[in-house]
Amino acid sequence: MTEQQALLKKAITKSAAALGSAADFIRTLQGWRRWLAAFFAGIAAALALAPVYALPLLVVGFSVLIVLLDKSAASARPLRSAFFIGWLFGFGYFLAGIYWMAFSFFVQADQFAWMAPFAVTGMPAFLALFTGAAALLSVRFWRDGWARIVLFAAVWSVFEYLRGHILTGLPWNLTGQALAGSAIGAQTAAWYGVYGLSLITVLLASAPAAGLSDIAGRPLGPRQRLMGVAVMLGGTALLFALGAARLAAPDPAPDGKHFVRIVQPNIPQREKIDPDYWGRNFHRQLELSKGAAPKDGRVFVIWPENGAPLLNEAETALGLLSEELPENAILIAGAVRRATGDDGVLRYYNSIQTFAQTPKGRRAVGAYDKHHLVPFGEYLPFYGLLNAVGLAQLAPYGDSGFAAGPGPRVMNAGGPSFAPLICYEVIFPGALYPKGERPEWLLTVTNDAWFGDTSGPRQHLDQARLRSIETGLPMARSANTGISAMVDAKGRILQRVPLYESGKIESALPAPLPPTLYERLGDWVYAVMVFVLLGWVISRRK
To answer: What is the mean pLDDT of the chain?
Structure first.
């Protein structure tokens, strides 16, 4: 054996021993110390998401969870123990991941501040039921070696899918979103979507635990201990290499006739919802919207969510738009609108409206009404009961909040067709537009001023980028604040206006890519991945 080989062997032995000692320490934890380990492992995993992007902590968090579940599997009451450990992990994960929700209750603190502690702990406690159930089901069929790693990753991702669909769904902070901080790590979502990306992410993050522990606590050799680390490093390198290859492929050129002007006015939230400030807010956005338009093309001027309430009813404002915007400019504005239905009831809608120049001046020529509303934020579920006990929705429109629109749609404003999305709707993969009606670009308007300078607006942007990667469509994103961006069809941010800054983006409209595999097959590719992995686990069991 050469000196170099001896040194390498010594380094491997020391590294394996260190990992083994860490695993042994975690395995010896009892009672509340074990509970704290699960809770802080969840917090560590959450730090891999925006804005920290500490990806090594995702590996630490899931590896610790696997070691803790190994002990649960060997305990007298394995299922109860596994559920509690998984719930504590999830509670820490979601507490650190969605703490920013509490900030929205302080915008109207006199009315809603008392609800903040309940929201900031209640929502993580509820979402952790999914992680607890995933841990319980995994341990029910737990086996030594790699089978338990593969089983856990598949089951975990299935419960993330369920979380994204049950009770209107909340696919926020899916584990695959940890890779969305850079376009290179998330490119394979074009094949299998964010749920497939989450499956791969959890599989790689949990891999080091394959050699750190087993149910019986038998000693493992240095090579066994480090095999999982090698798989994690090799798999991650392959994932990023595939992403780099996809990004290096040539992109279609813009047509040079269509441009976007994305406005971010940065209006404080209390002033945005106060009717006394609506006129001033309108003028601030109008000033940012001014500029030339191409003679032979169009410019789409985009205002954020609720940028101009009841704009289609404001003749003075429409007159100013006619005077200040070029004739071939199309204003696409987030706007509250109201309409009386056939039943005679006046309803309010959170909408996107398009305003074009007509012989009668600037007029609304199209509208999309948000269909996936935020419970308690935009409408109050079980209105009669909850209103009777003093609860109300945050959005102050109508008695029971906004009414829901009929569903996704594709709009055309005299140029390339686009799919309109309002705030929350962009977090739902595969639900951006009607099947078979692929647009040429995505447009999303939002208002993240509710959530302050927290991780929430940054996580929201990452999820929007994933939708571009999944569909192969560019996206224009206008936020009141936090964070406006022009995103190309591969999820790269071409321009942005940072959080809590006022400004605008001038950009040519990027060209779309051909339909992706995910665009064609949706979550079926992910489903096949799950069935293949579970089939492998079953074959090992037999």
So the answer is: 91
